[in-house]
Amino acid sequence: MALEGKEKECSEVNRNVYPQIEPYSSGSLKVSEIHTIYWEQSGNPNGHPVVFLHGGPGGGTSPSNRRFFDPEFYRIILFDQRGAGKSTPHACLEENTTWDLISDIEKLREHLEVPEWQVFGGSWGSTLALAYSQAHPDKVTGLVLRGIFLLRKKEIDWFYEGGAAAIFPDAWEPFRDLIPENERGCFVEAYHKRLNSDDKETQLAAAKAWTTWEMMTAHLIPNEENIKRGDDDNFSLVSLYWPYPYL
C-alpha cells in the first residue's frame, strides 16, 4: 500500500509538469574539428531564453526535458553535449573536457543570437551550469539547479562504493557481482579498467552494468522505461565518460 501511494504521488508530479511539445527549430553546430553538437528550440520564440544542461556526463537530452518549462513564457533550448545523444561522434572522449563544454555553450549562445539566458542543470548538468556561470557570469540571468551532484569524492564514494547499496540492494548486486572480489576495493577503478578494455564484450558488459545501476537508482520508484536503456548498446557506451575524470 505504501508503494502504491508513492506511485500515485509520482504520477501526480508527472501530471504537474508542462504538456509535451515539439521543437520549432533544430540543427547541428560544429564546435571543433572533431565534434558537432545537436541543438533544438521549443516553446515561445520570443520568450525568455533558458538553456537545459543534461546530466551524465554523456546522458543526452530527451523530449521530456522540454516539459520543465512553461512553453508560453520560455524559449526552451536543449542540446546534446559532445559525444552524447544526437551529437557526433558518439561516445567520443577526445577533446571532451568540462572546459570544452563551457566553450560549446557559449558558441551555441552566439549561434542562436541569445544575448543572455537562464541556465538550468541537473545532476552532472548542475556542475556544468555552475562552471559555465562562473566563466560567463554576464551571460546568465539566473540559475536553476536540481539533483545537485558536484562530483566530489565523498559523493562518488557514497554512490559507487557501497553507500547507495543500502537503499537499492537489489540494483547493487549485479553491479557489484560483475567485479571480482579482489578488485572491489574501488569499483570506479575496476569499471574504468573494463570500460577501456580492448575486448569489446568486456567493455559492453561493464557499460551495461554501470548504466543499469544508474538507471535503477535514478528514481526512488523504479522507472522501467529508464531501466531498459541499460540494454541499449549505444546508450550504455556513454558510460565511458563516467569514471574518466576521477582517475
From TrEMBL:
Pfam family membership, one: Abhydrolase_1
UniProt GO MF annotations: aminopeptidase activity
Keywords for the protein's UniProt record, in alphabetical order: Aminopeptidase, Cytoplasm, Hydrolase, Protease
Keyword Lyase: no
Enzyme class: hydrolase
Domain AB hydrolase-1: 49-215
Keyword Zinc on entry: no
Annotated localization: Cytoplasm
Predominant location: cytoplasm
Cross-referenced SUPFAM superfamilies: alpha/beta-Hydrolases
GO cellular component term of the entry, any: cytoplasm
Catalytic activity: Release of N-terminal proline from a peptide
Name the UniProt record assigns to this protein: Proline iminopeptidase
Species of provenance: Opuntia streptacantha
Lineage, highest ranks first: Eukaryota, Viridiplantae, Streptophyta, Embryophyta, Tracheophyta
